[in-house]
Amino acid sequence: MVLFGVAAVLQGLATSRATDADLLDPRLLARLAAERTFQAAIAINVLGFLLHIVALQTLPLFLAQAVIAGSVAVTALLSVRFLHVRLGRRSWGAVGLVVLGLVLLAPTATEGDTVATGTGAAVLLLGVVLALGVLAAAVRGVRGAPGAVLLGLLAGAGFGVVAVCARLFPDLGPDLVTSPLPYVLALAGGTAYLVYSAAMQRGSVTTATASMVITQTVVPAVAGLFLGDTVRAGLVPVAVVGFALALAGAVALGRFESGSPVPVAHGERLLRD
Question: How far apart are CA 259 and CA 226, in angstroms?
């Protein structure tokens, strides 16, 4: 959660300085790759992603994804410090909702079981990724905050596919090389990352992130219901309230805008700190 929150701010700093594009051009990532700030964002994202995969081996999707949703609170707090964003009372209250939701949700989960699936699941998930790419291309012309929200929602769905793929891994051993799931996961992650970068070019970092959090959290949580994820006996109401609070707080944080473009010096300062 913390690593993803830091990476989102760094990625936002890099995309704010990149040349805007009317198309979802994969060359955007090539241009961003030359940015030192973006390189740091990728490295931090990779580390956070590895921790996320390990968590998904033992935690149900609804808990793992709700915790990841808390990264938008980290993004918001760092935006105050490094991007000179001002948070009002409602935004601080939203941060509190995220924290409270996670506190309620954490003790309700039971350990997830390994799920045996065939190639059909990989094919279905691949179809979802391709559909997301088509939809992202269809809304690429929407500018401003609406474009950031639409692309953020699609990016979140792509990252949700990543989580489902990781949950379906039988183990983290060498057998993964022959499974189609890691390759679908890589395609979903790359597509989602490109769409997310495009979303942050059209609105604030937190607007794009908060929109992404909705589908990144809800899509895998719903999928988990079909994969055997369960809640501890007697704690279903607590889990529902905790999940709702964490998600509502994360979404509410997307209501403020980051304002003026971020100077390069702020990105260098965040990297140093």
Answer: 42
Helices (H), 226-273: 236-252, 264-272
Tell me the Ramachandran region of residue 144: left when phi exceeds 0, alpha when psi lies from -120 to 50, beta otherwise: left
Is the distance from CB of 240 to CB of 187 less than 8 angstroms? no
The total domain count for the chain is 1
| Digit-coded pLDDT (tens) for 112-151 | 555 666 678 889 999 999 999 999 988 877 877 788 889 9
Contact 45, 39 (CB under 8 A): no
Spatial contact of 78 and 6, defined as CB atoms under 8 Å apart: yes
Of 154, 170, 55, 159, the closest CA to residue 121 belongs to 170
Q: Which domain holds residue 195?
A: 2-272
List 231's β-bridge partners, or say none. 109
* Per-residue DSSP letter, 110: P
Q: Which long-range contacts (CB under 8 A, 24 or more apart) does 50-54 make?
A: 51/3, 52/163, 52/166, 53/166, 53/169, 53/172, 54/172
Most confident of 12-26, 27-41, 110-124, 241-255: 241-255
Residues 6+ apart with CB under 8 A from 8: 41, 71, 72, 74, 75, 205, 209
Residue 24 pLDDT > 60: no
